[in-house]
């Protein structure tokens, strides 16, 4: 099973909500759409679901053009951020509704609904109405409907966003297993980089209505293809600075210098953009973290296991994220050390060079 | 520790006074008339439940009640489905929304006696636009002052024209409150338009439709002004609905006792049927 987007666009009034996008999504793993709110994840899902018309381009399912096919005939499932269930139907009837519409035999519906209910631990609630369920149970009902339907494609549009933290983690752990081996193309939209990393598979990074990078999740995390992708796939935001390369030396501002190695050392001299993740900028010197920056601490956040500090130096605001609890003092200058081996370098067009 | 005193009575007193003047005292006056006979001069003779018995056994009352149920039944059967259909076909967004809403609200803004007068003139065979067109252009014999059927068609049409908008506006309010996501979910499930109506729109409109049906029942069951101005209850007694009959009895014949008894029976029927409607329509929600 595959879904292929060929040069699709979506237009609302004079605005292009999805700019020309091509993408091939396959079964067997999660396809994550990662981007902030308004980046076009939902728009793209609606195009694939046929809920919105294409302005141009084609959508193919298994090589067959479905661009003009009604949503009703696409055989897909969609789980929303909001728990959408039919309010006057029981959980059983909700899960059964697409099967009933498809005209399936009663005994088969019973079997499929019970199977899905077992997987999502909804057995005891089958005769309740949605308003008698907790948020987590309501969303599990919506997921059960998607599973029971055995559709060709399942779109999960930030399905965990409205659940509390514990439930979210629990359900997220179950998700890949729920859809494994069912043969459907699973598309999962999220605004949280961490979710993309946890769910694995393939990730498409979205920004301002187009896909900036698509590939195996770990790979695009390790090697962002451009500055925007590096930024989209980072939380807290990735640190970005302007450097000048001269010989094998990189110069950031007037005072900060380090030796370039590998690919980066072979680049022609000139200006470049450097990006480094917050967890590679640390408050203590180590063998690898050896380039010193002095910054004024603006904001600090302590969680049980991590400390983050936003600091400014020169014209830049950077973030440091380190394990443990570190006693930063807001408003004071502090030493930070970055790991040059983990720098990403981009040319003036924003594309990765090393 | 709970302190007990009678101060709370002071707080409900204003409401009690208001309700007393506005409902209880007038109502008790009617109750008073309904169990006595009076010939004026403030002389009263105790009659007990005689008037009630007389009204309940009277053929005149049965006939008026029958006509009343026929009228209310007809307008509900026409106005509710028609109102839903119009609400469904109204645009949900864009420039035409306010235009449609204002057009819908217009008939309801016209005073009731004006509506009666308008339709009276409109259907006059010789000078009314509709009456003239039907009689002289199409050659259909249509005169509601002579023909009971024509009179009925006219009062029902007039009520449909006047009040369908109420059902439309309420149903429309129910419809626009349905989030798009439900329609999308239904599309994805492969549901037909009928299934969307049956399983999404109708359940979501249920509350407002309950209100619409109740309001239309009560208003049409108590209707007086429009048919009074339009047909005056005629020809003969063919459009003499309950309230018209009641006024004839109370003011025309000055039979205050029987009229008071009839009012209370009338009130009890309205209340009873409203309660029945409400209970039946909200039965599912209570389970």
TrEMBL record, chain A:
Molecular-function GO terms, alphabetical: ABC-type ferric iron transporter activity; ATP binding; ATP hydrolysis activity
InterPro entries: AAA+_ATPase, ABC_transporter-like_ATP-bd, ABC_transpr_FbpC, ABC_transpr_MalK/UgpC-like, Mo/tungstate-bd_C_term_dom, NA-bd_OB-fold, P-loop_NTPase
One GO cellular component term noted in the UniProt record for this chain: ATP-binding cassette (ABC) transporter complex, substrate-binding subunit-containing
UniProt xrefs under CDD domains: ABC_Carb_Solutes_like (cd03259)
Keywords, ordered alphabetically: ATP-binding, Cell membrane, Membrane, Nucleotide-binding, Transport
Domain ABC transporter: 3-233
Family assignment from sequence similarity: Belongs to the ABC transporter superfamily.
Name of the molecule in the record: Carbohydrate ABC transporter ATP-binding protein, CUT1 family
UniProtKB/TrEMBL annotation, chain B:
Keywords for this protein: Membrane, Transmembrane, Transmembrane helix, Transport
Domain ABC transmembrane type-1 as annotated: residue spans: 65-277
Signal sequence, renumbered to the chain: none
Entry superkingdom: Bacteria
GO biological process, one term: transmembrane transport
Record-given protein name: Carbohydrate ABC transporter membrane protein 1, CUT1 family
GO CC annotation: plasma membrane
Annotated Gene3D superfamilies: MetI-like
Taxonomic path: Bacteria, Pseudomonadati, Pseudomonadota, Alphaproteobacteria, Rhodobacterales
Subcellular location: Cell membrane
Residue ranges of the TM segments: 7-25, 69-88, 95-122, 160-183, 259-281
Family per similarity comment: Belongs to the binding-protein-dependent transport system permease family.
Membrane topology: Multi-pass membrane protein
Species, as recorded: Aliiruegeria lutimaris
InterPro entries: MetI-like, MetI-like_sf, Sugar_ABC_transporter
